[in-house]
Amino acid sequence: MTQVTTRPAAPTGIGAPVDRVDGTAKTTGAARFSAEYHYADLAHAALVHATISRGTIVAIDTAAALAHPGVVAVLTHENVPTLTPTPKPGLNLNSLAPGTRVNYLNTDEVFWDGQPVAVVVADTLEAARHGASLVDVTYRPLPSSVDFAAVEDTATPSKSNPLMKTGERKGDAEAALAAAPVTVDQRYTTPPYNHNAIEPHSTTAAWVGDRLTIHESTQSIAFVRGHLSAKFGVPAANIRVICPFVGGAFGGKGAVWAGTVLAVLAARVVGRPVRLALTREGVYRTVGGRPPSTQRVALGATADGGLTAVVHTSVIRLGRVGGFGEQIVSMTNHLYATETLLTQQNEVTLDVTASTPMRAPGESIGSFALESAVDELAHTLGMDPVALRMRNEPDGNPVNGKKFAHRKLREAYALGAEKFGWADRSSEPGSMRDGRWLVGLGVATAFHPSWQMAANATVRLDADGTVLVRSGFHEMGMGAATAQAQIAADALGVPVSSVTVAYGDSDLPPAPGAGGSMQTASVAAAVVAACRKLRKKLGDGDPVTLLARSGKPFVEASVGSESRLGAFTSIAKTLKLVMDRRRYLTAASGAHFCEVRVDADTGEVRVTRWVGAFDVGTVINAKTTASQLRGGIVMGIGMALAEETLVDPRTGRIMNPSLSEYHVPVHADVPPIDVHWLDDPDPTMPLGLLGVGEVGIVGAAAAVANAVFHATGRRVRDLPITLDKLM
Amino acid sequence: MKPFAYLSPPDVATAVRMVADQPGAKFLGGGTNLVDLMRQNIVQPSTVVDVSGLPLTTVTELPDGGLRIGALVRNSHLAADPLVRSRYPVLSQAILAGASGQLRNMATVGGNLLQRTRCPYFSDLAAECAKREPGSGCGAAGGFSRGSAVLGTGTSCIATHPSDLCVALAALDATVEVESVRGVRRIPFGEFHRLPADTPHLETTLAADELVTAVEVPASPVARRSHYRKVRDRASYAFALVSVAAALEVRDGTVAVVRLALGGVGTKPWRAVEAERVLTGAPATEESFRAAAEAELADAVATPHNEFKIELAKRVIVSTLGGLA
Q: What's the pLDDT band for A585 if we cut at 50, 70, 90?
């Protein structure tokens, strides 16, 4: 269990810019990540990756690897114990845990280029990695389909489920489009992306008999525990998952991927604790990323800018052995008042890595197409793009009239426009210039739905006035523990410095996975409820005084249960929360304003100014909230200008699996980013929180593309916006 | 990484002897490229002879006003050297346009000359690459070639030389001094790197046992008015799509002296001989600069992915010369 004590002098209260409770531990190196736990007799593992996209292994020669000094074992499909087959995704939440359906090393089949086909275990990391290079695999390749562009036209509609519809229909949008006086009808494309968390996925696994301790870099302790329990046939209670610190994840550590299973398997086979720290290349080859997309957005409008038709369809790819059909068109269902609407997600299946959620899956790339198209319509109409959006701001959910729980987009736009100085913009593209730089200003809407899941928490107040909050949530760098310390301090009326938060451990009351921008709200609900219970036990008044008066050493209150029954109750509670949430449309939203400069000769684009104004409900911590929003915007700048996973269409192999060749923004690419929020609580969410983890990236790439158009008159509909597209 | 022997010689004579005696031995300078390639199993030396402790670390002024740069001078030191900054601004700017501060603090001048290409097919053992495996095909030709060369391409290789520093040295008529057990020899910079032709694995005229000991840059009054312009996909820490090293002296509206070299477009650091010929004696006008650029790129061969580089190179040549005129 990890306990981090807050800084003694920290200010208190909801909304205060409290320093991160783990800031000192991280900056001094005291914080230990999953590959930094030492065990006596620790062995190191390295993966051997398939170099074909589909086929079978006909021979695997491990002699040279085994002969290399320090190599302890080479695990292949020919010699490892049988694992329980990986379940297909179903109603059981644990079935959603694995990133792919492959039963690693239990099959001679290869499903994608990069699939692990052997694991070398050695006394040292160096011996393991060199041993891996000595394993000689012979394949019988089968014909494979890896070229997204080549099969895009064979896409079929993604299946809907009760929690997520993959398309909506209102009236006859195509007919309305054909009849509309003004239209935009364009195709937009986005490339594949990878998460590139600074900490590559890593696992340290130690078995004692049939009990497993695993240090794992994960967004979901429950998934790791549940999946490993199923795969290795041991009770979940025998598995302890520890992950106090996760060095970034962005969705890439939400599922359980090959490295985790294989580290645990290796530890079992060699009878020693095993560490498997993926190389950066290993992450690219074994962990899914965001799939590429092609999208059509068609808008029909009256001459004064009233929308009569909105069409948004998309195609993405899934891997043959898994993938996530992200909700690319869903925000289009909610953003604009329109007489007719047609949205539909479609997919193809290829012999490539299974895709997986990446920061604001769906909305981040869907917003690029939609918000570019709205900008195109504004230009066609000769309207200001903000005015066009406000002209079509709906009173209720455009598809079904369902009520908005909270809709403050008008206010966000007004705030952002004022801070940015939008009114000074000249509307004509190419009309602003500063020396060799063409200057452009762009705008786009951010939107991300808000959810809540059931979480458990225990709060204990000691006679000395200190508080211990226990909840097995996840800290991936966003400041989760700091926020919960502030929430507990506020609920109990004690200073933040009195609160210690224990998290990141399966021995703690279970909390939901960190994803979908819902962890803080979900855990807050449990922490606030537990604090309330605790106060009730003490009666009216200051809890610390009341406890002292009672003479008891401590008082404790829990929400949820750590028992098996409690887990089932949690699932039921979560389903109820999700279904309840469907009564309203609840979402965080915002407005991005940016300035770009484009070199008139070379087409080089630099983002030089950014203002984001957001409605994220209640802000718990001004400092970490600003960081989350800024981080999303930086990632959006990466999407807009640089990021692209290069998958060779001939082989299905990723050709730039490194941070030198996959370009994320460097410091010099990131301008000062000015973020603002309305700080207006949402009445339907715990503490009024709407979530801040993902909304910042949504719309960011469109804002850049729109600014580039304003600077140059050139519309780039194919990300990233590299200079060759502007020359 | 394949296990290797590590040797740390006390002087140059011992270092070159060690490499001469050990088949498969390699010199190690700053390690910013070689170590990466060893980790990727692209290069697997039997022995690494670490020369980074040898006393080749000074920049000294030559009697004619030129500079002698020790092969182990770190890139950041060279970029900051007052003589380099005042007499050869193009050299300082080229260095600072490359890599990152941390890498420049480690990387040596000698090592920079021997930098390997960043072609993705070269760095992936699962891909075809004739530079890595003589006689093999070229993965880039029908694959991702956005970064590939358009000048000096061979039948089996279109990989770009990645260095920025070398582009400036090509423009400055530098000389490379090398040493082996056979003695010292001097190689004009233009003859140091080879075109790939049908032997792309042979990248330089340096013998396997020769150590780069110094680079000499001759006195060059024109270099005082010089500039390095690098165009890339992000603001920092990216290899050039196109770069231009230029020095220009204009007298009475006419180009008296010009030095021009290109990066990001050639299979080796590309001295723009043809452009210089067209420009010398021509009016220092945008038309002349454009004509020179057209002449230099006339024989360029592109793929659909890197075709933009031809026009981009022309524009950057024109704007860089325009800035110096």
A: confident
Model confidence over B50-90: pLDDT tens digits?
A: 999 999 999 999 999 999 999 999 999 999 999 999 999 99
* Cα separation, A149 vs A350, whole angstroms: 11
Interchain proximity A602–B237, CB inside 8 Å: no
Give the DSSP letter string of A570-625: HHHHHHHHHHHHTTSB-EEEEEEEEEEEEETTT--EEEEEEEEEEE-BS-SBHHHH
Alpha-carbon distance A9 to A332, whole Å?
46
Cβ count within 10 A of residue A325: 23
The terminus-to-terminus CA distance of chain A in angstroms comes to 56
Q: Of A112, A724, A725, A726, which to mutate for an interface test with B (greatest number of B Cβ within 10 Å)?
A: A724
Q: Which residues of A touch B (CB under 8 A)?
A: 51, 113, 126, 129-130, 133, 436, 601-602, 604, 606, 641-642, 646, 648, 650, 653, 655-656, 660-661, 663, 665-669, 722-724, 727
Contacts of A646 in chain B (CB under 8 A): 120, 144
CB contact B241 to A (< 8 Å): yes
- Residue B58 touches partner A, C-beta closer than 8 Å: no
Read off the pTM.
Answer: 0.96
CA dihedral over A618, A622, A628, A630, signed as positive or negative: positive
Backbone angles phi, psi at A632, to 5 degrees: -65, -40
B127 close to A (CB below 8 A) = yes
Task: Give the pLDDT of residue A16.
Answer: 93
pLDDT tens-digit profile of B149-164? 999 998 899 999 999 9
Band of pLDDT at residue A405, cut at 50, 70 and 90: confident
C-alpha dist (Å) from residue B259 to A107, A233, B227: 62, 72, 10
Instruction: Verify whether residue A694 is a known catalytic residue.
Output: yes
**Which one from A199, A371, A475, A694 is the annotated catalytic residue?**
A694
pLDDT digits over A499-550, tens only? 999 999 999 999 999 999 999 999 999 999 999 999 999 999 999 999 999 9
Cβ atoms of A363 and A447 within 8 Å: the answer is: yes
**Nearest CB to A648 within list B1, B143, B316:** B143
Is the distance from CB of A537 to CB of A522 less than 8 angstroms? no
Q: Which residue of A has its CA nearest to B320?
A: A601
* Alpha helix segments (H runs only) across A427-500: 480-492
b or e along B91-104 (b: 16 or more beta carbons within 10 Å of the residue's beta carbon)? bbbbbbbbbeeeeb
Contact (CB, 8 A) for A475 and A22: yes
Give yes or no for a contact between A337 and A302, defined as CB atoms under 8 angstroms apart.
Answer: no
> Where do we find the tokens 């960043």?
B118
Q: Is B124 near chain A, with CB under 8 Å? A: yes
Report the distance separating Cα A126 and Cα A681, nearest Å.
Answer: 53
Q: Which of A648, A653, A727 sits opposite B311 (nearest CB)?
A: A727
- Is residue A594 within 8 Å of A422, Cβ to Cβ? no
Distance from CA of B143 to the nearest CA of A (A): 7
CB B128 within 8 A of CB B140: no
CB A340 within 8 A of CB A170: yes
Residue A426 and residue A439 in contact, taking contact as beta carbons nearer than 8 Å: no
Sorted by sequence, the CB contacts under 8 Å of residue A253 that are 6+ apart come out as A197, A201, A217, A218, A219, A220, A246, A476
Tally of residues, chain B: 325
Handedness of CA B163, B168, B173, B176 (dihedral sign): negative
Torsion angle in degrees (nearest 10) through CA of B60, B65, B66, B68: -20
Nearest to B315 among A130, A601, A648 (CB): A601
Say if the Cβ atoms of B126 and A653 lie within 8 Å: yes
